[in-house]
Design a protein that fits this description.
The model has no long low-confidence stretch (mean pLDDT 96). This protein is an all-alpha fold and 236 residues long. It starts with a helix and ends with a helix. Helices cover 80% and strands 0% of the residues. The chain is globular. It contains 14 helices and no strands.
Length: 236
């Protein structure tokens, strides 16, 4: 039997997953291809804007094929989030990245209200908005707060406790906004992520990253930790 796009993704064959997803030609195929393109982009040693554009285009194809398929919207928002960090807050604001991502996440939540990926995307969006624009502007312009972001991430992890991708994203989001204030929670989340058995190749990398970050914190290498966390967040 011919491997599915998901089969390729699970084993870490992201180029093959992209090709197979595009060949499948439906919303699920394009969304999986977008997920694989994002995985490939986030695993690179250096940021790749072209890779993020490819992921965003694949997610758009998924939405065009079926606007009621939630993952297309989630992958589109994720691609925008990584691209915004790479191009800087001014260009992202000019391109209305926050508004576009919010529309996509709101659609995903409407379609799948309890889906951990949709919840974590919403959590990440809230924290990123207040990180870049400040708590006052984030609340006034977008209704975003750090507390909402934390609550949404915790709901996502309650729905899917062993999800190493979401848990590492949560630890990194806390780091980006309130490293000192949330350091103990960050360490607890990283520890849980590093202990979990990975579900696929990408989760295995997230496990290794969590272990590496936790080791730096345990040895009080805060500057090294911040630099590595920043790289894993996708900053140039």
């Amino acid at each position: 039997m011919e491997p599915t796009p998901e089969d390729y993704f699970v084993k870490g064959g992201y180029e093959a997953a992209i090709e197979a997803g595009e060949a499948q030609g439906d919303a699920a195929g394009y969304a999986l291809a977008a997920r694989a393109a994002l995985a490939e982009a986030t695993l690179r040693d250096r940021p790749c804007l072209e890779c993020l554009h490819h992921a965003r285009d694949l997610a758009r194809h998924a939405i065009m094929e079926d606007a009621d398929y939630a993952e297309g919207h989630i992958e589109f928002a994720a691609a925008l989030g990584y691209e915004a960090r790479l191009i800087g807050s001014f260009r992202a604001r000019f391109g209305r990245f926050a508004e576009q991502a919010k529309d996509a996440i709101d659609t995903a939540l409407r379609l799948t209200p309890d889906d951990p990926w949709a919840l974590s995307a919403a959590g990440g969006w809230n924290i990123e908005v207040v990180r870049t624009g400040g708590s006052l502007l984030g609340r006034l312009l977008y209704g975003a707060t750090f507390e909402k972001g934390v609550d949404l991430y915790r709901r996502a992890l309650a729905a899917d406790p062993g999800n190493q991708v979401i848990s590492l994203q949560y630890a990194l989001a806390l780091t980006s906004y309130d490293f000192e204030g949330k350091r103990l929670e960050i360490m607890a989340v990283l520890d849980a992520t590093a202990r979990e058995d990975p579900r696929d190749a990408y989760s295995g990398v997230m496990k290794a990253r969590a272990a590496e970050l936790l080791d730096l914190l345990m040895r009080d290498k805060r500057d090294d930790y911040r630099a590595l966390a920043r790289r894993y967040l996708g900053f140039p």
